Every structure is written in structure tokens, then in C-alpha cells.
Amino acid sequence: xxxxxxxxxxxxxxxxxxxxxxxxxxxxxxxxxxxxxxxxxxxxxxxxxxxxxxxxxxxxxxxxxxxxxxxxxxxxxxxxxxxxxxxxxxxxxxxxxxxxxxxxxxxxxxxxxxxxxxxxxxxxxxxxxxxxxxxxxxxxxxxxxxxxxxxxxxxxxxxxxxxxxxxxxxxxxxxxxxxxxxxxxxxxxxxxxxxxxxxxxxxxxxxxxxxxxxxxxxxxxxxxxxxxxxxxxxxxxxxxxxxxxxxxxxxxxxxxxxxxxxxxxxxxxxxxxxxxxxxxxxxxxxxxxxxxxxxxxxxxxxxxxxxxxxxxxxxxxxxxxxxxxxxxxxxxxxxxxxxxxxxxxxxxxxxxxxxxxxxxxxxxxxxxxxxxxxxxxxxxxxxxxxxxxxxxxxxxxxxxxxxxxxxxxxxxxxxxxxxx
Length: 420
What we know:
Helices cover 45% and strands 14% of the residues. By secondary structure, it is of the alpha/beta class. The strands form 2 sheets. It has a 5-stranded parallel β-sheet with strand order 3-2-1-4-5. α13 links the parallel β6 and β7.
């Protein structure tokens, strides 16, 4: 047991001398120890009143206050790097509160956001590590907002990654939190960023448009490989990372397992909403993630934007998902349904159209009577997200260049200070 101090001993001696005298004599005679009682077993010594009634032991309160941590961001074009950052932040406390920067502040400091506040709210709220979301959070944490976090939201620590977050004037956006001694840092997830994804989309669609301008010419294998290589992430998946994102729990013996599949490229609010609806139809949601080759075959050579393991981690991070099949087949077979004990196969009404429609991939579950078409809550798709970026092509090119210059200056200064 944990006690505040040893004053209870002397209080007991002063107020209950006979009781303590008896205890001391008993201890001396029996050689009082936990090992003695554990090995031999001492008869229960009944006393005229309980220890708690005597008021001798002043125990600390057992209820430990939960640590609340805060992490903010734009979370535009949500990816596994965002999810991993929030996972790390949650590990530093008991409850994670996320601040979503407003559309207006993003536009003023970084350029136009790709996703609206409502779409970003769905994405962030859908992550398994997030407990609460504050909308319209400021880009810079001022002392005034910091006091609001501490007093109104009971925040203990402000969390951010080890990558730079600079204001337009070049100052640190988290200077106030650091000054207050309430700042903690996590490791940035290498290999991906919103800036990187925008670059991939611009490169991919630019290559696609270039091909269309040549009257639908076929891309040579070498040219195709080069175009894909231009937007492949430097991400090396590990089993440890997959375990960190996974629930680690299988379905119960009588669980109703619901299956839904897709590319889940550029994981967006529409994906979260349809996964939520699918999960509500059963006890366990199994999600099939199509391989890069399958997506390219049915969507075109310039897809997917995010590769298989990136897409798998984004889906695993969703609170409504229990397990994923990494590289699931296009057609759902009876053997697959039996192997995974699938009770229901579902598909949303809003989805990317396939270039290859020779056979219905859901033919078997339809024949078995276990297929259901779900009304998609949102009409957003991977293609519409990409089109938004292309529509603001110049703005995003400038935004990427500005971010790259800012980060380059930061790392050069950091390297100079460290003497490397």
C-alpha cells in the first residue's frame, strides 16, 4: 500500500499505546514477516475494531487523475503519418484531445486546404486513438489559447512532432507551450507528408493528361515505371508498425463478421462513413485492401496514389475496423467466405468505376444471399479529391515549394547549431 508519510505510526503510538505495544510484542515473538505468514499461516487475530475505524492508516486516494494531452494540426489529406503521430501522442497520456485548425487559418498560413473542416473532422474523429476534438483551433498556440487549454479543457501537455512548425514570420508555433514547460515531442513518421501526397497527385494526373494529349497512346513499360517511381513513397513497412495499428483481437466464436473491400486510396471522409455503417451491421468488420496491381488494372496505370501498405495502415487506424486483409482478391470466392466465416458482404453505392467490368466481383455472395448494397453517406471519392488539387494546381505548387523552402532552412539551421 502507498501512504502519504510515516506520521501515522507516531500518531498511533500517541493515541493507541496499548495496541501498538501489543503489536510490537507479537512481532518480536513470531518474527513478523510476510514470508512467515505466507508459509505457515497464522490464525486470524480479531481485534475490537478495524484498522480503518481506528483511523491509523491514512491511505492516499486510489483514484488517479487521468492525464490529458493535446495535439493539433491541419490533418489535411489524412495519412498514416498523421495516424501514427496521434497514436504516439495518446501513449503519452490517458486521453487525447485533438485541435483542428480552421479552414481560414490554413489558407492564411499554408494555402487552401484540400479537405473542408467537416471532412477533416470525420477523419480525425474516426481514428481509434482520439477521444475529443476541438474545431477551429488556432495555428499558433498563443498564451491566451494555452490558458484556455489548461483551464477549460484540463490539458496537461501539448504534443507535437520533431518536424518544424513555423509561423509565416519564421517563429516557432509552439514557443508558448515550451516556455510553460508543458510541451512534449514525438518522433515524426518518415516517408510521407501531405505535401508529398499533393506532389504525387500532381505528378500522377499530369502524366495521365500528357498521355491523353497524345490521342490515347499506350504508355511503354519503361515510361510507366518511371511515372510511377516519381510518386512512390519512401515507406518501409514493418510488422511492428502493423501490430501497433491493429486491435490485436479476433472475432468471437459466434460473431457476425461483415466484409467490405476496396482500394481505400487517399483515405477520406467517405471511407470513414461507409466503414462506420458496415461495422454497425455486425460484431466484427473485416476489410479487404486491394493490391497495387489490382487497383492499377481496374483504375488505370497512374493509380493507386498511396501504395498497399500505406493504405492498409490508414484503414487499420480507423476505429470501426477490426482487421484487414492486405492484398485481398478482386473477386470474392466461396472459399474465402468460408475461410473467414463471413456472414455479410457489403459495398457502398459511391465507388470508383472499374475499367474492367467483365465479371461481377460480388457474384458469389449475391448467389449465397449474403450481399448488401449500402447507401454511401458522402459522394466524395479518391478521384474528386485529386480533382480538387488539380483545380487549384498553381496554388498547391506554390504551397509545396514554400513548405519545402521553410523546412530546408529549418534543417540547415538545426545542422549548423548541432555542429554536424
